[in-house]
């Protein structure tokens, strides 16, 4: 009932001309899909994604969005702009933005609200740093981050929401959570969302795992009943490995 999603977070990689060639190849080589594929490139690539992927099976979206609707906010990109570019998704609360740009849960919640207003699906990232896991506090820390990053998103449930559990220590490090640790966290996240928005929503919401996903470990992660896909950084940049992930999904 929950459709698997494989979303590639390109971060600050590829220029628009490289992306054009890559995306056209992806379209050409795409296997038949039961799952959903999405690419999340940098802002200047989104018009290229619209041109190349528009009307195809592959969705696309952004890595961030402004917390403001419109106005004198130099350098910001609004949810309405993303909507006009055909984005289905946008990441909010990625740990790199929390860490390097000081993004707080309150800011992330505003960003999620702007996306929901425009009918764009937020991919809300949460996850604990290493010292929190070592203290044995990963679950309460991450649940608190989830609920704080949705503060002001009142019931009824934000049906479009996707959550990504990304333990900070697993991102870009080659270390990943064990399938059973990921499963335990996803179950706890689902339970928290059920308590906040109703049991039905907890069962409907898709929860992705992110953190050094690759074609070797993806099948085991996906075999967990509460893991609904992957948010993939490094392994989404090479066409072959992204296609391999899609074949696994
Ligand atoms: C990410 O950027 O969200 C991510 C999980 O990166 P990586 O797959 O490279 O760890």
From TrEMBL:
EC annotation from Swiss-Prot or TrEMBL: 5.3.1.1
Catalytic activity entry: D-glyceraldehyde 3-phosphate = dihydroxyacetone phosphate
Protein's pathway: Carbohydrate biosynthesis; gluconeogenesis; Carbohydrate degradation; glycolysis; D-glyceraldehyde 3-phosphate from glycerone phosphate: step 1/1
Pfam hit, one: TIM
A GO cellular component entry from the record: cytosol
Entry annotated with the keyword Repeat: no
Keyword Isomerase: yes
Compartment(s): Cytoplasm
GO molecular function: triose-phosphate isomerase activity
InterPro entries per record: Aldolase_TIM, TIM_sf, TrioseP_Isoase_bac/euk, Triosephosphate_isomerase, Triosephosphate_isomerase_AS
Enzyme class (EC, first level): isomerase
GO term, biological process aspect, one: gluconeogenesis
Subunit structure: Homodimer.
Stated family: Belongs to the triosephosphate isomerase family.
Protein's job: Involved in the gluconeogenesis. Catalyzes stereospecifically the conversion of dihydroxyacetone phosphate (DHAP) to D-glyceraldehyde-3-phosphate (G3P).
Name by which UniProt lists this protein: Triosephosphate isomerase
């Amino acid at each position: 009932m929950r459709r698997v999603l494989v979303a590639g977070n390109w971060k600050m990689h590829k220029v628009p001309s490289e992306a054009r060639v890559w995306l056209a190849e992806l379209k050409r080589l795409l296997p038949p899909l039961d799952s959903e594929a999405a690419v999340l490139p940098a802002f200047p690539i989104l018009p290229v994604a619209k041109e190349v992927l528009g009307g195809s099976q592959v969705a696309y979206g952004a890595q961030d969005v402004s917390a403001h609707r419109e106005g004198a906010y130099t350098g910001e990109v609004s949810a309405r702009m993303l909507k006009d570019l055909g984005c289905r998704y946008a990441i909010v609360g990625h740990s790199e933005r929390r860490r390097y740009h000081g993004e707080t849960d309150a800011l992330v919640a505003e960003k999620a609200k702007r996306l929901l207003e425009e009918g764009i699906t937020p991919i809300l990232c949460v996850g604990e740093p290493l010292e929190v896991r070592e203290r044995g506090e990963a679950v309460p820390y991450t649940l608190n981050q989830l609920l704080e990053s949705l503060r002001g998103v009142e019931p009824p449930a934000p049906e479009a929401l996707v959550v990504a559990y990304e333990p900070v220590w697993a991102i870009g490090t080659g270390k990943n959570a064990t399938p059973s640790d990921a499963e335990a966290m996803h179950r706890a996240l689902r339970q928290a969302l059920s308590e906040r928005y109703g049991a039905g929503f907890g069962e409907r919401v898709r929860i992705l795992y992110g953190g050094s996903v690759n074609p070797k470990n993806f099948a085991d992660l996906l075999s967990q009943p509460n893991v609904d896909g992957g948010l993939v950084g490094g392994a989404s940049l090479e066409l072959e490995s992204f296609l391999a992930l899609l074949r696994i999904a």
